[in-house]
Amino acid sequence: MTISFESDSNIRRNTRLIILAALILAAIFLINALVSTYLLRKNSIQDRSDQLANLTIILAEHTSQTMFSANTALLSIVEILERARISDEKSYQDFASKKAQFDLLQERTSSNSILDVSTFVAADGRVLNFSRSYPPPPINLADRDYFRYLSTNNDTNTYYSIPVRNKGNGKWVFYLAKRLNDKNDQFLGVVLVGVSVEVFSSLYERIGGNLGEGAALTLYRNDKTLLTRWPLVEKLIGKTNPNTYIDESLSNANINGGVIFGSGPGFARQNEEPVPRMLSYREVKGYPLVVGAVVPESLYLANWHKNASGVFLATGLSLIALFGGALLLLRAYRRNAETQYRAHHDVLTELPNRTLFSDRLQQSLAICKRQNTKLALLFVDLDNLKTINDLYSHNAGDTVLKEVAQRMSSCVRGSDTVGRLGGDEFVVILAGVEEENQAIQVAEKIRQALLIPIDVDGVLLTTSASIGIAIYPDHGLNETDLVNNADIAMYEAKSAGRNQIFVFGSDLSKSVLMNLA
């Protein structure tokens, strides 16, 4: 393995580490963004859920106060009849038909802004008197739900009717009605007051406008009959809501304020595509009524969408900055690594240059001294590089040098070092050499490898090498002595006819064939 490969390997490893660190940071940013948006979504839903639950509390309280006022007005009228000690149907009709009772009904209605009308009704459904005009026009209410129920059920409680449209002014009105009995507890008729749904619609419109488009506020009877809603859908007034959301919400009143989530078809949008929504319904304490509020997902997640967009925008900018910084860091690192590499490696062969070779040799000597081991230093000089340069150009010579560097590197171990000192001079550090013959064997391997012709643009060029060997500590205890002595041995080999291997201090040329014999 050559030093060039080791350096490239280190660069690749460090590059991978930088990229991995950037990817880990990017993953952390993304995970943080996802967790943040999840928590923001959860908090947005919880905040809107709390808001919706509080809103239904307010609506229920408003409805309770309105119904209390209307019911109080109704009871005050009934009380007048009770004080008159009505005993039979005739006395009731005579009493209720008088102008004084018209004045009473008119006064009770005008003094209470939530009332639309007050009425005395006979046992056959005829209007005996009401607050709009005197005498009343011929009107029969026997077909109304409150009359049918109270005339057939001896129920003393206030009955809350389904809404009806007033034929005079077109307004929707629902009624609070009380049954009247004679002294024998027989049915005499009905007293009722009408409450305009505008009392609720105007408030619902103000609140709903603040909630946003798609929201809805509703008022139901406890049998899920719609009394009014915002936005108003007139065809649904008086109709029964078949969905189970009201029951589900009321059954969970103690859990999250009765707030639930639905995605099925809506009561008001039966022919439209269902939308996910948040719903909350609440019973009106003391009255058979239910108020409700509905908010579509587009509203209760609106803030989350804005915040999530901000989070992902910030994360995106952070990722751009992160990868931009990582790219700049990689470029700076590679430039620095290349600068360091070029400062310590031969430009042509990419082998360690004199500076790096010296550092490696010093490190190897320090290890040998510490571990009491040996190393061999090979000084290799090409025999005919000048001739190749003169005959075939310096480009051909450069090709030969690069091929020589590769062949020499392939002849040694990964723990060894092959370097170029300049020109046609190469050096090799063989670590862990215990015997001289080991060094000679490697030198011979190199010598043989360099004898193989080299193809340069179709021309086969041959070269050889003179190799000198110095062994630590036999031939020197420091870098200078070893290099000088290996160099001397190389010159002895060259002087002996080139293409030779000499060991410093020997009187004989030590060829591999002789030593292997």
TrEMBL record:
Listed Pfam families: dCache_1, GGDEF
Entry keyword set: Cell membrane, Membrane, Transmembrane, Transmembrane helix
Membrane topology: Multi-pass membrane protein
Listed NCBIfam families: GGDEF
Protein name: GGDEF domain-containing protein
SMART domains per record: GGDEF
Subcellular localization, as worded in the UniProt entry: Cell membrane
InterPro entries named in the record: dCache_1 (IPR033479), DGC-Regulatory_Protein (IPR052163), GGDEF_dom (IPR000160), Nucleotide_cyclase (IPR029787), Rev_trsase/Diguanyl_cyclase (IPR043128)
Record domain GGDEF: where: 373-506
Membrane-traversing stretches: 17-40, 310-330
PROSITE patterns: GGDEF
